[in-house]
Amino acid sequence: MAIAKAERLMNLALCLLGTRRPLSKRELRESIEAYLEAGSDDSFNRMFERDKDDLRELGLVIETVENLDGEVGYLARRDSNRLPPITLDAEEAAALGLAAKVWQQARLAGAASGALQKLRAAGLPEDVDPYEVHGALEPRIPVHEAAFEPLMLACRDRRPVVFDYRKASAAHPEPRHVEPWALECWRGHWYLAGWDRDRGAERVFRLSRITGRVRTRGTGFTAPVPDVVTVRETVAGWAGEIADRSALIRLRSGAGYPLRAKATEVRELGDGWDELEIPYGHGLDAWLVEFGPDVVVVEPAELRADVVDRLRAVAKG
Q1: 66, 109, 168, 289: which sits with the fewest CB atoms below 10 Å from its CB?
Q2: Could you say which DSSP state residue 255 is in?
Q3: Which residues on neighbouring strands pair with residue 192, listed in sequence order?
Q4: How far apart are CA 16 and CA 23, in angstroms?
């Protein structure tokens, strides 16, 4: 279905760009095979209006012209749809080269390399090597998860997905039905933000916890996509990075160095234990569970209860 629609949009764009006079809906329907196969005038009109809106959203300037007889026609003038010459200075070219090198470990490496070759043909300065290393440190964004590429395509095409997901506190994965919005890398891990259909709410998923294959579903989105998807802020909040209160925990001596780094106060209790005050935010219970028997929550009581519940769930398997 996606290929058929892409071909239909391409044919419509070529017709509108190739004509010297406005073409009516009737003429466009007779010129494009997919429109001829439309079952009725109503289905054709709906299809044409959607395609016209999609092309405009992609950046094609389509003019609507009414002739002397009152008939409406459409065309896309070449001068209105011609990009200006591409001019890049040395700093801009270096930035593009750096971006391409960042993606060398991902499946996007080929696309990034091809884009740079097209820019070179379009006027990229010959004395600039976009792949030249400009420092001792070379930034990279590693993408090892097999789920990355199908999720990236699903985000681009606005297609719902189904995958098996294992939560940090669960022993076995569960199926999740998600409308994917955006992917983002945060502290070395990739996350997907989207609408969880089963829970009827926005959720963020860590790609390394997705098991098995990501399957796409042909149905459209049921929830509106927000204008801004703040993956990092959401993950930071869930990870306890955004906190407005404190928790008191006991930590075994010589253990839990990440917790010690976040602590606002540390007191030695003796007998191999220390007492720490740490920022308390959403998701802190899941983080504390990872330290197992080295951590005991003193207060607040709600945090202690959440940690105990998670430990019991893991023990039950």
Answers
A1: 66
A2: -
A3: 183, 205
A4: 8
